[in-house]
What we know:
The chain has 139 residues and is α+β, with helices and mostly antiparallel strands. It has helices at residues 15-23, 31-39, 47-61, 69-77, 79-86, 101-112, and strands at residues 7-13, 42-46, 88-93, 120-127. It is 45% helix and 19% strand. The chain has a 4-stranded antiparallel sheet with strand order 2-3-1-4.
Amino acid sequence: xxxxxxxxxxxxxxxxxxxxxxxxxxxxxxxxxxxxxxxxxxxxxxxxxxxxxxxxxxxxxxxxxxxxxxxxxxxxxxxxxxxxxxxxxxxxxxxxxxxxxxxxxxxxxxxxxxxxxxxxxxxxxxxxxxxxxxxxxxx
Length: 139
């Protein structure tokens, strides 16, 4: 494994928890999650909100400079995909969406204790190896 390989964690949550997390991103209402994120200098960002931010920025700045604009816009406008991404949250560490293996391992270990199948449904782990990830669509 390359020393430069970075990782990203995402959690999938219930609709009710998603609504709460989007309304109060500090998640102080969920003490165990709040403490874990705080200990790792981590924050959550709803995937749908991240996509909507990307689309909004592209529309303000000029879509020609945003190669994923069309795909992202179609994604957030599709009802089933919107529902999926509203329940998905990326974990950022020190403001970064990817981080080292040790950090990802520690966060994943802590998060795995919170997965209950009801509120926090699952954890997904991604890495920056292009062979392990779908490549951006071409238009």
